[in-house]
Structure formats: C-alpha cells, structure tokens
Amino acid sequence: MNLSTLFTILMKAAHYLILILMVAYTVAAYTVFRSRSREARERLFLRQDWLLLGIHFLAYLTMYLKTLNTELLLFYAAQLVYFLFVLLLFRNLYPRISKGLLNNMCLLVMTGFVMITRLSYDESVRQFRFACIGTVIALIVPVIIRKLHLLTKMTWAYAFVGIGLLGLVMVASRSVNGAKLTLTVGGFAFQPSEFVKIIFVFAVAGLLAGEHSLKRIITATVLAAVHVGILVISTDLGSALIFFVAYLVMLFVATRNPFLVSIGVLAGAAAAVAAYFLFSHVRVRVQIWKDPFADYAGSGYQICQSLFSIAAGGWLGTGLYQGSPGAIPYVEEDFMFSAILEEMGGIFGICLILVCLAVFIMFVNIAMKLESRFYRLAAVGFGAIYATQVFLTIGGGTKLIPMTGVTLPLVSYGGSSLLSTLIMIAIVQGLYMLRSDEVREEYETERSRISEPGQPYRD
C-alpha cells in the first residue's frame, strides 16, 4: 500500500467519523433540554466540548493530509487555543452562563473556520481575526448588560443612531451587485446594517415594553417602517426582511394581538409585490428562483451551481477537498450551506440546522424566564433575527425561496456578520445571567426571611 492510498483511506475514515461525532453532538444538544439534574447537564456539556474539538481536529487533519501544508497545522493550533480560551474563560468568568448556548456558538464558529479554510486560507485567517476581536468584545458585554440599567432608557438614542447609520449607507456607499451595503472607513469596510439590527431591537423593545397604547404601537410601527424603508431604498432587501420579521414577532409578544400581526403580514406582502415591480434585480431573483436553468450561463448560474453541489454531496458528502464548491460564485458568503452539503453531506447539514434551531430555542427559553418586559422583548427580537437569517440563507441556497444575499450566522465569511452575531449572543448570555442574579436574590431574601424568629415558612 503506497502513501497516497493510505492518506485516502485515512481521509475517508476521518470524514465518516466527523459525521458520527456531529450526530452525537446534535443528540447531546437536545438531550440537555430534558435533563433535570445539574450534574447530568454538566456531563453533557463536557461531552459536547470533546465532540466539537474532535470534529475540529479531524477536519484539519483531513485538510492537512490532502494538501500537506504545514501552515494548516499552525492555524489549527491557533484555533484550538482560541476555542479552549473561549470555553474555559467564559465559564470561569461567568459561572452562571448558558453553557449549551456557548457550546453551540463554538460549534457553528468552528464549522465556519473549517469550511472557509477549505475554500480560501487567506479569508479564513481574516475571519479568525474577526472572531478574536468579537470574542474580546463578547467578554465585556455581559458585564455591561448586568450593570448598566440605563440601557433600558435609551430608546430614542437607539432609534436615531440606527436610522442615521442606515441613512449614511444609503447616501455614501456605492452599489455592489445591485445593493448598497457597506461603508469604508480608513480602508476598513463594514456593513452597518449588521450592527443596526442590535440597536433596532433595543429601540423597539423600549417602545413596546411599557403601556400598549395605540400611540405607542403607531410610534413603534413608524420607527420600524423607517428602518425597513431605508433598507429597501438601499436595495438591501434581505436585511429589510429580517428587520420586518423581528418587528412583527416583537409586536405579537408585546401585545398578544394576532390582528395587528395579520395587518403587518398583509402590509409586508403588499410591499414585496411592490418591490418586485420597482426593482429589476428583485424580478431577476424571482425568475431565477422559478427556473434557474432558463438562463444557466447568465443570472441562473449561481443557484444552478448550488443545486449541483447539493446533489453531488448526497447524504454522506464527498469529503473535504473532494468536491467543487468553489464553482459557486460568492460561496463563502451567500452559499456556505451548499458547500457544507456537498463536502460534509446531508446528514451533517441536517445536524447543523438542528443546532441552529437549538440556538433559537435557547433564545426563546431565556426570554420566557426574564421578568423585565424590555429584556424579554429584546431576547425574543434577537431570536427572531437569528432564526430569520438562518432560514433566508438556507432557503435561498436550496431554492426553497428566492435568494436574499444574507449570510449564515457564525458560519459564512463576513467580519460584520460574525462580530454582530457574537455580540448578540453575548447580550443574550448577559440577560440569562441577569435572570440568574434575580433568582439568587429572591432565594437569599426568602432564606433570610424564614430565618427570622416567628416567621412561617412558605414554599
């Protein structure tokens, strides 16, 4: 047996083992919801850590065996230090953090590192740098959430900053592929709408957290409409849809009035029809969605290549470096899920969707436990943003819906998307710890009360 054949066998074995570990991780991610014992949950979290680190090791081993590039070994070592840093430091600094959410975040970031490295080593290095920056910021965010209660009283500041940033993009940025998305400052390009999503949620939460008067609802609706309108004018329709869905979800949670949401859905449908007739690139995307092969060599090429990649991967995938995901234009940004399906397989892709769903469930669970209406609405809004973005990305890549050009959170290439999602998750972690602090204070108060002589105990 020659060395080449041995490497091929090892790569195949590593690929199948990755699939097994991914399935095991996904099962653990849902088993933790049913576990009542704290010790059992801790064991599951530790098992998840080993599983995701195992997937990470096997993926980079496969890529090294294929390329024999020693830079990959050094890059793997740097990433390993990063994941150990994140897992250990977060848990030691914040013992009451949601460990399940932290693990799922690391798994998604790890998947992004692996796939971007396979597609473009240079882009993966840049993504790794953004992850390091985002993690440092994320370490500070929970402290800000727990200590600065002023955050709940800055509604109009959030509104003006968000509208101002989006307006600046509309005026100052140049159009790329039919949309105005980025600003360039000092040679650094970033996408403001990714960060405006966060302050938009805070602005809407501030308006809807108080009384549910008609004036408040109209004000919140106008605020949301201005954000969405600016994005539509900038032809950033994917972000506009994310903002719109987040607002509708927050409106329903705040008012529990399905009639208002129904009106919003009808208004959104009418706006979608208007966008179809007003913007030529929207019509093109709808036509591509209906029949991409009608213009295979032109506008339909991207989605056709995506479908070919998905078909080539099947259930088990071709293996890293065994497919051709690079044939899809903008694959690292818009069609990362298709690349995953081709080389990692449908089983891995389904598990990835389930992990994303688990992240959304954790957002909702945390929101349900919060006493503050502002924080509850904010957590729900972040969950809606995350779930909508995942759906749009996966749906567009698989031809379930027309393409929208948004990224898969934490997985696709893009510094702005990665930073904003890390911050968003850090905010939700801060809210989770805030509730833990409240529970602890309630427990201490009850404990001190029953310790007083003559006070009856009430369970």
Question: Which descriptors would you attach to this protein?
Answer:
single chain; 459 residues; mainly alpha
Topology:
Blueprint: H1 3-34, H2 38-67, H3 70-93, H4 99-119, H5 121-147, H6 155-172, E1 183-185, E2 188-190, H7 192-208, H8 214-233, H9 237-255, H10 258-278, H11 280-290, H12 301-313, H13 336-343, H14 346-369, H15 373-397, H16 415-450
Antiparallel strand pairs: 1-2
Helix pairs in contact: 1-2, 1-14, 2-3, 2-4, 3-4, 3-5, 4-5, 4-14, 5-16, 6-7, 6-8, 7-8, 7-9, 7-15, 7-16, 8-9, 9-10, 9-15, 10-11, 12-13, 13-14, 14-15, 14-16, 15-16
Query: What is the CA-CA span between the terminal residues?
Result: 71 Å
Largest sheet properties: 2 strands, antiparallel
The parts where pLDDT drops under 50 for at least 5 residues are none
Class inferred from helices and paired strands:
mainly alpha
Q: What's the overall average pLDDT, rounded?
A: 88
Strand content: under 5%
Shape: globular
Can you describe what's shown?
- This protein is mostly helical and 459 residues long.
- It has 16 helices and two strands.
- A two-stranded antiparallel sheet has the order 1-2.
- A hairpin with a 2-residue loop joins strand 1 and strand 2 (188-190).
- Helix 9 (237-255) runs antiparallel to helix 15.
- The mean pLDDT is 88.
Would you summarize the structure shown here?
By secondary structure, this protein is mainly α. 75% of the residues lie in helices and 1% in strands.
